[in-house]
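Throughout this review, each integer encodes one residue's backbone shape. One record appears below.

===
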Amino acid sequence: MMDATVRVRSVVWTATVVVLTLVCALLVSQAWSVGAAPGDTDSTFVPTAGCRVTDTRSASTVGPRRAPLGENQTFTVAIRGANGECTGGLAIPADAVAVAANVTAVNATTSSNIRIFPADLAEVPTLSNLNVFAGAPPTPNKVDVKLSPDGKIKVYNFKG
């Protein structure tokens, strides 16, 4: 009687291990093959090598603007395609719907905030992406922002 109990328990444990192994293998294989679900509005994050799209410092040669943003000023930045240092293999894909960016404020003249948003929004959002202080060292922040249908974002400076 004792042998039969041990065998039944062994079979149950073996079956449990097999089931758990299969479940874990399926979960791991699904995690490695993550992709967007079908549909026009779905997207997948695709990491790329870093590149600068624009730099608004007067001495910069990256992007079309060569002047800092003034108080209550907005600047439109083209993201998709070849812009700034994002050229060749670093160009932002034509079907990109958003961007994960590092935005840095340098040499702030007064305390302010910077707001990054899709270029097709009619009004400047009330929430900031980056808070800056006069005399502070360069202040970076990671910003995720949706692109407008034509692949652009806007950068707004509240003050300074």
Summary: Strands lie at 73-78, 98-105, 112-118, 130-132, 139-146, 152-157. Helices lie at 2-32. The longest strand covers residues 98-105. Residues 28-34 have pLDDT under 50 and may be disordered.
